[in-house]
Amino acid sequence: MPALAAKAHQHGTAQLDIVVDASRVSIVFDTPLDNLLGFERAPRTDAERQQADAAVAVLRDAGRLFRIDPAAGCTLAKVELASAALKLGDGGDVPATGDHADLEGRFDFDCKQGARAAHVEVGLFEAFKSLRRLELQVVTPKGQMGATLVRPASRVALVR
Ligand SMILES: [Zn+2]
């Protein structure tokens, strides 16, 4: 896979990488925790714990969060979440710095005909109100492209 640009931590913005091949679509979502929770540390109160659990539940329900073009025949195979602040996974590949914290999610879909996926409907703006902008990297058998998705848009084109 080509090297992707270094990821910046900027509230309101997140990175979304989508890799399409014949039998699989893989999506990696890398976001400041602030975009999901409004805070960037371990939850301290019951209300904050409930908020964190709700955000994690939305991310684990990835078949609803990322609706891949039905022509590709994709089904959700695996979800991996990593966030040191939420004690998920291995804590992500970037150590927490200062007062900030991130979450990385990886979502793998098995597809009958991945190359036929022309678009993905992304439900992240609907689910997370603080998120305003997604920096996209899309890699398909035909090539690689960057794009930006700004609220309230939800459709990512995989071919053009
Ligand atoms: Zn932050």
Features:
160 residues, alpha+beta, six-stranded mixed beta sheet, three-stranded antiparallel beta sheet, 4 helices, 17% helix, globular, disordered N terminus, binds zinc ion
In short:
The protein contains four helices and nine strands, in the order E-E-H-H-H-E-E-E-E-H-E-E-E. With 160 residues, the protein is an alpha+beta fold.
Q: What report would you give on this structure?
A:
The protein is of the alpha+beta class. It is built from 4 helices and 9 strands; from the N terminus they run E-E-H-H-H-E-E-E-E-H-E-E-E. Strand 7 and strand 8 (143-150) form a beta hairpin. The longest helix has 15 residues, at 46-60. The chain is globular. The model is unreliable at 1-5 (pLDDT under 50). Bound molecules: zinc ion. Zinc ion is lined by residues 9, 11, 32, 34, 40, 100.
Poorly predicted tracts of residues? 1-5
Mean of residue pLDDT values: 92
The SSE order reads EEHHHEEEEHEEE
Q: Radius of gyration from the CA trace? A: 15 Å
Approximately how much beta-strand content do the residues carry?
35-45%
List the ions, cofactors and other small molecules found in this model.
zinc ion
